[in-house]
Amino acid sequence: MMHALNPFMPGAGRKPRELAGREPELEIMDRIIARTKAGYSDRGLICSGLRGVGKTVLLLRMRDMALAQGLMAVRMEATSDARRDYELLLGGLSKAVLRERNKSLRERLLDVLKHVNDVSIELGAFGISLKTADDAPASSDSLQLEMMVEELCRELKKRHSGLLLFIDEFQEMPNDLMGTIIGLQHAMGQDDLPFYVIAAGLPNLPGVLTKSRSYAERLFQYRKIGRLTESQTKECFIDTMKGVSTFEDDALDRLIQLSQGYPYFIQAYGSAAFEASDSSPIPLSAVNRGEATARASIDDGLYESRWQRASQSERTYMRVMAELGKEVCSSSEIADKAGKTTPELSRTRKRLIEAGLAYSPERGLIAFTVPGMGEYIRRISPSEEQAYGSDRADARASRG
What we know:
By secondary structure, the chain is of the alpha/beta class. The chain has three domains: 23-224, P-loop containing nucleotide triphosphate hydrolases (Rossmann fold, 3-Layer(aba) Sandwich); 229-304, Orthogonal Bundle (Helicase, Ruva Protein, domain 3); 311-395, Arc Repressor Mutant, subunit A (Orthogonal Bundle), CATH 1.10.10.10. The protein has 16 helices and eight strands. Residues 18-177 form the Orc1-like AAA ATPase domain.
């Protein structure tokens, strides 16, 4: 019966009972909501960090905050497929309108959608070419998206509400659509309309946005989401267990050491210790018994799938990174250890970054996007002959 009450939620993007250490980001979200309801505009928000630090969970909490205050919120996970991303956006906006509880506002917003759809059809029928918010040639999708956002925001502002677009894995979005969305944030801000992009992605996301549109650095508040401090980690374990059980002091110390402040690890090791215990408070022996189970869960959820979807040359590159034993490696030292020249490995390096397996903190440097990936490779020594998951899109389902 005790195990049925396990309060930990291991898994990608699952909402934990306790969201510790993210108060500054939640305060920013609170301010955006308050300013929107008061009729003022603000900048959007970009959260970037390694996998497993809780970016998706944070994005979900922010969306819930907006919905609780009556604002319109649309959430999507970006892909590398522009057609699919447009469908997710346009469909998400339509669903958000249908979810509006205020009947008169919902009817007015539905009229807006119908008008935008009619205009889009007419423009297509007559082959009329217009410009987007960035003064670039408009596709029918980008034009429809811009018209829909602008018209919805004009109506929402009259009701002291606004439209918030929550995008996960934003770095994955095709450049043209990313540019359209950045342009929308810019144009709506200039017109003092309540539209905000609240997005999360890998550590290279700020650079990707600026590369897409140079003025992106001025449109958003940027927050680096890292691992929790020791005190925040302790708080997370204690608060998660409230009303259910507690950990003995030495058990809690060991859990803090094992989890290293990464929310994904906190949930995995906390859950395994809870399942391994038959008493309360939970002793160190239960943490020790559950350690192998938690590590296997993390290996399967974070590491193995990423190794499987890398090509043999990418696996060789990652193995060299792991053997160097550093959080951040230079391209030149990787080439030296591999017995290659830097140009010979440049294409492999680029593919690893494009696949989201690594990122470049700055020019000439590279690091894993998943904390502990190097330790996993050294510990497991996974085979470079495993089946190669060449369809990167299908592999996205395993991302944390």
